[in-house]
Amino acid sequence: MCGLPSNVYLKEVGPRDGLQNEQKWISTEDKVTWINMLSKTGVSEIEYSSFVHPKMIPALKDAREVGKRINREKGVVYSALVPNMKGLEHALEAGIDGASVFMSASETHNLKNINKRIPETYPILTEVIKEAKNAGKIVTGYVSTVFDCPYEGRIAVEDVLSVCDQLIESGVDYLSLGDTIGTAVPTQVEKLLKGLFPYFPKDKLILHFHDTRGMAIANIMTALHMGITRFDSTIGGLGGCPYAPGAAGNVATNDVLYLLNGLGIETGINEKRIQEASIYIQNKLGKTLPSRSVAYLKNA
Ligand code: HMG
Ligand code: MG
Known about the structure:
Blueprint: E1 9-12, H1 14-20, H2 28-39, E2 45-50, H3 63-69, E3 77-81, H4 85-94, E4 98-104, H5 107-114, H6 118-134, E5 138-144, E6 148-149, E7 153-154, H7 157-170, E8 174-179, H8 186-196, E9 205-209, H9 216-225, E10 230-233, H10 253-263, H11 271-285, H12 292-299
Parallel strand pairs: 1-2, 1-10, 2-3, 3-4, 4-5, 5-8, 8-9, 9-10
Antiparallel strand pairs: 6-7
The protein binds 3-hydroxy-3-methylglutaryl-coenzyme A (HMG) and magnesium ion (MG).
The site of 3-hydroxy-3-methylglutaryl-coenzyme A has 24 residues, from helix 1, helix 4, helix 5 and strand 5.
């Protein structure tokens, strides 16, 4: 198909975004086994956990232990979510190639999620970004609620631009634009990207879709046509943010892979191994994962 990239970089955020909202405790040992399976799938990057306050995200309170125990596969980037200097210290101790800082384009979501107003967040993240870069790490800046906010509704492109601008100024290598509540449609994606393209190179932008309304694949298709080559996804469509009520899981890696393989776009990922890792975590969680591809495999 003309106008599409030949390669796409997929970041598997299942062990972080995928598990952070799960009520069922997945043991450290099972997390490590699962991440080791993911490491063998050929995925470019794995966000393996989150170094946030353990009371905010109890499901990932063993981040340090997980980071110390996983096998590191050559060629795979291992990253983790980091909210502040304390989180960065723990992450560096556990071992990371990449630090993902995060904030929101919406004031209310920022406050609920990280207990800070947007202007108060910048100095905290600027220090984290500087120290992570000094330690030789790749830094990604997540911007949440770039389309819609569960508290404030539609977010203006100018508000997203302003947060992206500040994060780039602070030194992030990539910006990951989050459809936190999974409500965007392709025209919103087109509008936002057109607003950002004059200021930020396309290859610095990552898109992070939740799939609440089933629009994520259509949105990814739009972004691909506009030259975006980096996406976040989770095995089986796990995920959600506890501070974004109503949000469903991320777009499923399995479904993105089905699309990209069908389009002839290279990812380096082995689909069978992705399915095996999906079945593994599905059994551990004891529930059917939302991805259509997992259901297909089960019934095949
Ligand atoms: P706070 O309470 O404002 O923190 O929380 P504080 O700096 O005032 O410190 C209070 C206490 O917490 C202190 O302990 C600190 O040491 C401790 P005390 O002295 O009282 O004993 N503390 C920590 N402990 C462990 N690890 C840390 C840490 N930081 C402080 N890192 C904070 C601020 C940001 C820490 C908190 O609000 C938090 O952890 N929030 C995280 C919420 C979260 O994880 N949300 C989900 C991830 S974001 C997401 O899913 C969206 C995304 O996927 C993109 C998208 O979909 O849009 C990325
Ligand atoms: Mg997310």
